[in-house]
Design goal:
The chain is mainly β. The chain is built from 5 helices and 40 strands.
Length: about 775
């Protein structure tokens, strides 16, 4: 059976399971909330968003997920994929229904109201969310809202909004956890085991009006190769060059013949995060909360060459002969994959608001995220001498960061059971990018030398929004809303020493209004239907506006005046709820105008030379359907089943710049994606979980020329099975163990992804 066929079969199976899970007698049962944490409201309960949502709680995570880091917690949520290349990865963006992992700015991720999405870029590197600020043992629940249908969120919610809520204690509590993971990896000539060690602790208490909570997490990990060093095989054989052995013949993602020369990105990371939360109740229903967090990261990346000369010595560069073909291997081929990374990031938040329901609820939140230190060093000299010292570069993001200000209120003019529930608010944000690169005489520990490149800029948004959930009848509620945004980009500057460039970029500004509308119908006690529409504008990030492209001996900024993306999105859903489960079917559609994607185009008018850079693509269209199922006590008491499957047809409709892309699949969006989780709890102390994740192959290029997916830089399909066992062998002690990728699926999502990994953890909670 092919993997595409498997995806369709799993979707059909979920549909059949959904029907089997609905006995006729349950039609008269009262629906219940499937996922609940006492004292922690879901985002849907707090903000009444007119959108489909999914949640996972701390209990679910403990029983079902081998969650070493926070991004693991989203592993089985419907139609969310986190590109986590290895444990501790700092470049782990999410993919949603209609957007791939290269579109990080089309989603919003928050932790207790603090924005973790790095909206300084729209990519899978510096634009990746800052997951390291939160550790799994803090999490109370995670809510995901799909689509741009809630007026309370900016247009970056085109894909989804992830809200992470962490715990705040009511009595004294403390916990200690130690964990271990071991990955067995084998590919080409790289065969090794890669361990991870984790130590974590939490403590907190409430003393009358004052509450506090502390969390600390220490992680040491080693990764499998994140990259391979390759070279394109010349068209004709040759006898020139030093003869070397050890290379592997292969093909790249477009089918061209290449040789695999070695592995790179073998990271050894040490990470620490610390979080402090303080809360004080000024009145029975008014609370002030301050939170601070710090993330420390030390990363050393190594390489492994497969090449050996006649004496058996390793080879890293030079004029080489491999299998009868001549190659000129530059020093940078291997040295670019050797680097040292040091980070110190801080986040702060201060909030004041009501904590109990009434006719009025309000909240004001100020947040700050700052890159106090973010430096990466790598050599530019040839290896092996570069292992010890030598010339190199220092890439710096110090001073990058953002702040947000939000004030919002919920007004029930006719009481809790009245016809109107009106929410409204104001928002402000500023994102600052400071991205410099310096030369240095000693890349390991030397001081910064001459400034080689510099990219700077700021974006700023002010917004007002309002939304009214209007109960037309006891069964029908219409939600109408709108968001007005004023955006500007300014202080843009690009510099390069060679090729020479020093350009002050033009300031930009734009104002947009985004209407929202939704109608929900409670057909009876079990069935609910909902239809939603939303328009959203996603404004360009600083790095998209001020990208620099080398064109021969010159450097240029191709388009510092990009237009914002505009999404017209809609969905229709039908949900059946019962005492022990729920089934939801959703059809959704998105028309995205002026989509911001990287594509090939000439920089000089009339030239046939093409370069890759971010441009506006006239129109993309995505249509799809999903099913989400959950059933407790299925067939036997204690057996919980949940699953999701989605089909998406995402197509480029109009693109005069590259006509060959019209009608092709949108990059990085799979047609089929599915998850399934079965958890059996024979008693309150023991839980067994078997889970599966599936994704169809995707294209990385907008003209779909990358047909080979089972190679480095290809985007292949995968079917991965995970297991977990969790046992509370004492009221305070929990032992958990599991295996990720039990079937040892070897696949690429540009990078080689983890193979079979064993996970174990021991936790004490007081």
């Amino acid at each position: 059976m092919s993997y595409t066929t498997f995806g369709r079969t799993l979707l059909s199976g979920c549909s059949v399971f959904a029907l089997l899970a609905i006995p006729a007698s349950s039609f008269a049962q009262t629906p219940s909330e499937n996922i609940l944490v006492t004292g922690t409201k879901s985002v849907a309960e707090q903000n009444l968003p007119p959108t489909t949502a999914a949640s996972v709680t701390a209990t679910d995570l403990q029983d079902q997920v081998n969650a070493v880091t926070t991004e693991d917690s989203l592993k089985y949520l419907p139609n969310i994929f986190v590109r986590r290349r290895h444990i501790g990865d700092t470049q782990a963006p999410i993919s949603t229904r209609t957007s791939g992992v290269g579109s990080s700015a089309r989603s919003l991720i928050y932790a207790d109201g603090v924005l973790l999405s790095a909206l300084i870029a729209n990519n899978n590197s510096i634009g990746s969310p800052r997951w390291g600020m939160v550790s799994p043992q803090e999490i109370a629940r995670i809510d995901v809202l799909y689509g741009p249908f809630a007026a309370a969120y900016a247009g970056n919610s085109i894909g989804a909004v992830v809200e992470i809520a962490t715990r705040m204690p009511e009595t004294f509590e403390a916990s200690l956890k130690t964990g271990f993971s071991l990955q067995n990896f084998s590919q080409y000539a790289t065969k090794d085991t890669y361990p991870t060690y984790q130590f974590a602790a939490t403590a907190g208490d409430r003393i009358e009006k004052f509450a506090w909570f502390l969390a600390a997490n220490h992680l040491v990990s080693k990764s499998q190769p994140l990259a391979y060093v390759t070279a394109t095989r010349p068209a004709n054989p040759s006898a020139s060059g030093t003869r070397v052995t050890g290379a592997f013949a292969d093909t790249n993602r477009t089918g061209a013949a290449i040789v695999e020369l070695g592995a790179g990105g073998l990271e050894r990371q040490i990470q620490d995060n610390f979080r402090l939360k303080l809360a004080y109740d000024f009145a029975p229903n008014i609370r002030a909360t301050y939170a601070a967090g710090v993330f420390l990261h030390d990363d050393k990346s190594g390489i492994e060459t497969y090449l050996r000369d006649g004496a058996g010595a390793p080879v890293y560069s030079g004029s080489l002969n491999i299998g009868g073909y001549a190659y000129n291997l530059a020093a940078s081929a291997f040295s670019n994959k050797v680097y040292r990374q040091e980070d110190e990031h801080w986040m702060h938040s201060l909030s004041l608001g009501t904590i109990n329901g009434g006719n009025w609820e309000w909240q004001a939140v100020a947040t700050l995220y700052r890159y106090a230190k973010d430096e990466q060093r790598n050599p530019t000299v040839a290896l092996p001498s570069g292992f010890n010292s030598g010339a190199g570069n220092i890439a710096v993001l110090n001073g990058t960061g953002w702040y947000t200000l939000d004030a919002k209120a919920l007004w029930r003019p006719y009481g809790a059971d009245g016809a109107h529930q009106i929410t409204f608010g104001a928002h402000g944000d500023r994102y600052t990018l400071a991205n410099s690169r310096y030369s240095t005489n000693d890349w390991i520990s030397g001081p910064k030398g001459a400034l080689a490149t510099d990219s700077r800029g700021k974006t700023e948004t002010l917004a007002l929004w309002v939304q009214d959930a209007w109960r037309l009848t006891p069964e029908v509620t219409a939600t109408l809303g709108g968001r007005f945004e004023s955006w500007r980009a300014y202080d843009g500057f690009n510099y390069s020493l060679s090729p020479a460039l020093a350009t002050t970029q033009p300031s930009l500004d734009a104002t947009r209004f985004s209407p929202k509308a939704s109608v929900s119908w409670e057909i009876d006690e079990a069935w609910q239907a909902k239809a939603s529409y939303g328009m959203a504008y996603r404004f360009p990030t600083v790095s998209e506006l001020y990208q620099a492209i080398t064109t021969g001996a010159t450097l240029t900024v191709p388009n510092p005046e990009l237009k914002p993306e505009r999404a017209n999105s809609g969905e229709v859903s039908l949900e059946y709820m019962m005492a022990n489960g729920s089934v939801r079917f959703t059809y959704f559609e998105e028309h995205l105008d002026d989509a911001l994607l990287s594509q090939s185009a000439p920089l000089v008018p009339g030239s046939t030379t093409l370069f890759n850079y971010v441009q506006n693509i006239d129109r993309m269209r995505s249509r799809g359907a999903e099913i989400v199922v959950r059933q407790d006590d299925f067939l036997i008491d204690g057996l919980e089943l949940q699953g999701s499957a989605i089909f998406v047809d995402s197509t480029i409709v109009k693109n005069p710049i590259l006509p060959a892309s019209v009608g092709k699949k949108a990059p990085q969006v799979p047609e089929w994606r599915a998850t399934a989780v079965a958890t059996y709890r024979p008693n309150d102390a023991l839980a067994f979980t078997l889970a599966a994740r599936y994704s169809d192959r995707v294209y990385a290029t907008i003209d779909n020329t990358d047909g080979n997916t089972f190679t480095y830089q290809g985007f292949g399909s995968y079917f991965v099975v995970d297991t977990r066992v969790s046992y509370d062998f004492d009221p305070h002690w929990t032992l958990s163990a599991g295996i990720d990728n039990l079937n040892n699926r070897k696949y690429f999502i540009f990078h080689p992804f983890p193979q079979r990994s064993f996970v174990a953890e021991l936790k004490y909670a007081y």
